[in-house]
Fold Exodeoxyribonuclease III.
Amino acid sequence: MKKFATWNVNSLAVRLPQLLDWLAAHPVDALVLQETKLTDDKFPTMEIGEAGYQVQWFGQKTYNGVALISRERAENVVKNIPGLPDEQARVIAGTVGGVRVIGGYFPNGQAPGSDKFAYKMNWLNGLRRWLADELKAHEQLVLMGDFNIAPDDRDVYDPVAWAGQIHCTAEEREHFQQLLNLGLSDAFRIFDQAPKSWSWWDYRNLAFRKNQGLRIDHILVSEALKRRVTACEIDKQPRRNERPSDHAPVIVTLQD
DNA sequence: ATGGCTCAGGTTCTGAGA
């Protein structure tokens, strides 16, 4: 059995104790992190190493930042999207135990029509082009992270209020569909899931208590990997911590 | 009570997140 997971920790400096607790309770084969918000010199390699994990990291000051934590050492590590010049640290990829693991912190996009939305669209185009190549090179591939896209109205607590808003625009959903069209499957939707399953809840307005959230953190698997998937779940428990991240981890389980 | 946030950087506030 293998487990892969993704978690937007919203500052690894703040969340490191929670990360170490989570890893102890959930011994995954690979975990990708988003929004570490650390420059590379401040990355807590020693603490993660002492927990029994290898780690690759790619950060910047204040914003963004990603990492790939794994039991086995990740090979052929790539940072950001080849062919897409980008000042922001958003992607880390590596091969772990024969599986290509790609972790992404997709741009937020702020609002349709904004410069940040245009950046998001350009980034998604670059990602799709690169992924087409990666899928040719790696039959077993998982793309996971904070996509900042709610693929369907089922993934939104109030689809009417969010219609056309950021994360829910037709353009973003079309990009998500194009990733699926490359031969990827949304692991969460392989299985029957409880309605109102979210991976993110706003810090404001008691959103978690009221279960008002979005499902924007995803695990996409290639055809070869899909055949091995036995479960996919969102772990809400860390959202109940004191000083939680606003995102919950998502975990996929595969048979050997 | 019908409101209600949390980060980093830096400094008593701003920008960003989603």
